[in-house]
Design brief:
By secondary structure, the chain is mainly alpha-helical. It is built from seven helices and three strands, in the order βββααααααα.
């Protein structure tokens, strides 16, 4: 087997260093090919005028880079979904935080504040998970701190059946309000369906 051009560490990962903006940068990868890919990515960032500063990289800076690098081939509607969610919900709370400083409790607060926006809340968690996962893959953070966060599934409230008193009031109201008459029609139609379905032949 030919010797790799990169240093193999005790933990099995490959490592090399490159100089970016007169600063030494350490690159790690599970394989030599992964190190190659990361070097190409960094060169791409530099050639496109992206700021490469691991120490002071904010969540928003990395999220914008993540969109540019990893979401190029998705549909415009899906891309707009990510951008809108970031702009409306995520950036206001953690956008300006240093990427490396974000903890699980910061994201939990963000999600708790979104309890009234269930679908947007799900998208926010999905988006943050993807962003931090790629940040970990690129060694910008040690680990994805939200990897194990799960949202509680919405449990529908138990339906309370109408009482005879409720139905009597709707009957009275139906004399003057067509909307109440429509409600009665639905009630009696469903009652009839239930009775018919219980008949054994």
């Amino acid at each position: 087997m030919p010797k790799s051009k990169y240093t193999k560490r005790a933990d099995g990962r490959y490592m090399t260093t490159i100089t970016v903006n007169k600063k030494r940068k350490y690159i790690y990868g599970a394989t030599a090919e992964e190190v190659d890919e990361k070097i190409v990515e960094i060169k791409h960032q530099k050639n496109n005028g992206m700021e490469i500063n691991d120490e002071n990289l904010s969540f928003k800076q990395w999220a914008e880079r993540w969109l540019d690098l990893y979401k190029k081939d998705i549909s415009l509607s899906t891309l707009d979904m990510y951008k809108d969610n970031l702009r409306l919900y995520i950036y206001p709370q953690i956008g300006n935080m240093l990427l490396k400083s974000i903890k699980e409790h910061h994201v939990m607060k963000l999600l708790n504040d979104m309890s009234e926006h269930k679908r947007a809340r799900e998208i926010s968690l999905l988006t943050i998970k993807q962003i931090l996962e790629k940040a970990a893959d690129n060694n910008y953070v040690v680990k994805n701190v939200v990897k194990h966060i799960k949202l509680n599934k919405h449990i529908a409230k138990e339906k309370t059946p109408l009482t005879n008193d409720n139905i009597s009031k709707i009957n009275e109201l139906a004399k003057t309000d067509n909307r109440a008459f429509l409600i009665l029609f639905i009630i009696y139609t469903r009652s009839s369906q239930r009775r018919n379905s219980s008949v054994k032949i």
